Amino acid sequence: MPDMSASASLAMTHLVSFAKEVDEDKVTPGVLGFIVFAAMALAVWALMKSMNRHMSRVDFTQVPDPKAEQGETAEQTEKAEQAGAEPADAETSGQGRKQG
Q1: Mean pLDDT score of the chain, rounded to an integer?
Q2: Where is this region: Disordered (predicted)?
């Protein structure tokens, strides 16, 4: 190593001594583990951003089903007739008395 400067050789001696201090029996994830973790974190971030965009497009107002409303008014009319009372929505359902 004749071409190395004094500071480079000093740095190399420190790095070599640090490398000897590392336990050879210890298993670490290393660079590959970090890359895989970072890729998974980016994928989760992209999925959350996409989900947020799709959820903002959803219209949560529920449109009432006209068939269900007709069924409910018919049931209410039958219950009112059985009780002997006039149905509350007789004018709107078309089953009330004619006023003339």
Answers
A1: 75
A2: 60-100
Among all chains, which residue has been given the structure tokens 């509350």?
88
Q: Locate 83 and state its tokens.
A: 């009780």
Task: Tell if the pTM clears 0.85, that is, is over it.
Answer: no
Q: What is the DSSP string of 49-81?
A: HHHHHHHHH---PPPPPHHHHHHHHHHHHHHHH
Cβ within 8 Å of residue 46, ≥6 positions away: none
69-85: per-residue pLDDT in tens? 776 666 777 777 777 65
End-to-end Cα spacing for the chain:
117
User: Are 1 and 9 in contact, with CB atoms under 8 Å apart?
Assistant: yes
What are the tokens at 69?
A: 């409303």
